[in-house]
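Amino acid synthesis family protein
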Amino acid sequence: MQMSMLKIRKTMVVVEEIHHEGGPVADTPLLRGAALAVVKNPYAGRYEPDIQPFMDDLRPLGLQLAERLAEALGGAEAIEGYGKASVVGEGGELEHGALWHAPGGYAMREVLGGAKAIVPSSKKLGGPGVRIDVPITHIDASYVRSHFDSMELGLNDAPRADEMLVALVMTTGPRIHARAGGLAASEIKGEDGLR
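Structure:
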């Protein structure tokens, strides 16, 4: 059995409380949170044809971050939106960031009790301090327009050239003052993850 290649330098959980966006103050603030980890990229500085073993190594981290984030936002039952992202340091390649898709997405679905919608994602290459916008959609139906959102993330010292920053984002509801129409959360059929 191969030893895990996962080496974590740091993690962070952050929660925003959004009371209004220029309109009336909401009765209950929207919570938007993120859990991030900075990990060593085992493939930095070289081309490796078979990178999938690291995806398996990332799975426990995905679950740990998803559990911590859901707890920080009031528990899995409070979560209505989600997204994920990765930033690869300059010694790596964009494809290394794609290794976060399954570990991050499936972990959130598991923690949230089988959410149906695809987890939106973004990835990029960048150096320390780079920012990334993480797209967010409703956990059960991607077409629920009120939950289309994003959260900008970054850390001042990551990722270094031989690192990756991986992130999960969750929200507790629609955008504050959402009024752009479209499918409402109360109208979700839950058949296909879209509507």
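The chain has one domain: 8-187.
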